[in-house]
Amino acid sequence: MISIIIPIYNEEEGISEAHKQLSNVLESIEQKWELIFIDDGSKDNSFSKIKEIAKKDPHVRGLKFSRNFGQYAAVSAGIHNAKGEALIIMDADLQEPPTLIPKLLEQWKDGYKAVYTSATTRKDSLLRRSLGWIFYKTFGKASLWGNIQNISEMRLIDRDIANAFVQLKEKPRFLKGMFFWLGYPHTIVKYEKQKREFGVSKYSFSKLAKLALDGIFSFSSIPLQFILFLGVIFFIISVIYLVFPLVLFLLGNASISFSITLFSTLFLGSIQLLSIGIIGEYISRIHDEVRQRPNFIIEDRINF
Hints:
Spore Coat Polysaccharide Biosynthesis Protein SpsA, Chain A, 16% strand, 52% helix, 8 strands, 304 residues, alpha/beta
């Protein structure tokens, strides 16, 4: 069986079209399949639309969260409840076209446990593309996995990866990092990203920034090592700087001495605050783990 996992958040307008296009593609393959829509606490009638479709199509299953837990929590819920030997994760906006599914299955049948997709062209703003490039370059080096830039949300994972994934209980859930951390042979399928037909993107810059921080702090200790590096550098500078006030005093230039001292105090103070902030991010994540709250709560199920 093939399981298609689709997280939903305020996608009422596009669910029917997504179901139609996916059904047309899946009916052409010679395997059983299921569509799992996960309503991530939508404020519109998304879940009612899923119910309506599920009454007519037994392939469709639905999960409804008690509130908004986030896209990656929704994907996790889908993986936990999917029955397929191959699981395909994709968004409902159809920017990753359903026609990619046969190509993903072909690579899976060739022996790859994971098949990722990568857009050859992107229609995002220059600022968004630039910030994304900086993040993935930084993340790739920090996580020691290399460059994973332009890896899209649509991907296929084998049942072996799904079984390994459900053992991961960590929070927050940066799925791109988690899947790469699990290992297994993988390949990448290129595609041309489509224009969104319905609704708007739910990822604001603040959400993307939070996602970037989750990725870095969840999969790398580089920020902590950076603090140690700064500490060593400024210790050396401070030792050298001990002789400056004496030299300036002997030259009779007390005003310069005062300016340098003030600048040094402010600069070192900002470094200390930065260091405390980085440590605080790790402590916050430790706090989340210690509480052991579930990543999601399912309020309702359809066809399960």
